[in-house]
Amino acid sequence: MPETADDAARADEARAVPVEQLPPDPHRLPSPDAWFAKDAVRHLLDRPKFCPMCGAPLEADGITTEYWSADCRNFMTWCGACQWFGEVVRFGMVTIMEAEH
């Protein structure tokens, strides 16, 4: 544990990796003036982060592909941890009915 702020800064500098040595970013966004830039940002923010079946992180070992059907956004999802394959559908609003008690 660093004793002072200077020790913490030196520890951060020791862990720093030059940008040219980093692996390519798999989530590079298009330039902001591209016609689909807003859709790309929404996809990264809205896609499922965890498997609906086992809860494993999909970014580590999974695939998520977005497609549209009319105004529904569908995420075809595969989990490498439990081999689950299915769709996750985003809804803007859901109305449900509760049974009388």
Overview of this structure, please?
It is extended and about 60 Å long. It starts with a helix and ends in an 11-residue tail after the last strand. Strands 1-2-3 form a 3-stranded antiparallel sheet. The protein is of the alpha+beta class. The chain has a domain of 53 residues. Strand 1 and strand 2 form a beta hairpin. The protein is built from 3 helices and 3 strands. The model has no long low-confidence stretch (mean pLDDT 79).
Write a concise keyword list for the protein shown above:
3-stranded antiparallel beta sheet; 101 residues; 3 helices; alpha+beta
> Which secondary-structure class do the elements indicate?
alpha+beta
Portion in beta strands:
15-25%
- Main beta sheet: strand number and arrangement? 3 strands, antiparallel
Write down how many β-strands occur, each being a DSSP E stretch of 2 or more residues: 3
Please state the overall shape, judged from the principal axes of the Cα atoms: extended
What's the rounded overall pLDDT mean?
A: 79
Output the number of helix runs: 3
CA gyration radius, whole angstroms:
20 Å
What is the strand arrangement across the widest sheet? 1-2-3
Query: Which consecutive residue ranges, at least 5 long each, have pLDDT under 50?
Result: none
Distance from N terminus to C terminus (CA atoms, Å) equals: 57 Å
Listing every helix as H and every strand as E from the N terminus to the C terminus, the arrangement reads HHHEEE
Q: What proportion of the residues is helical, as a percent range?
A: 10-25%
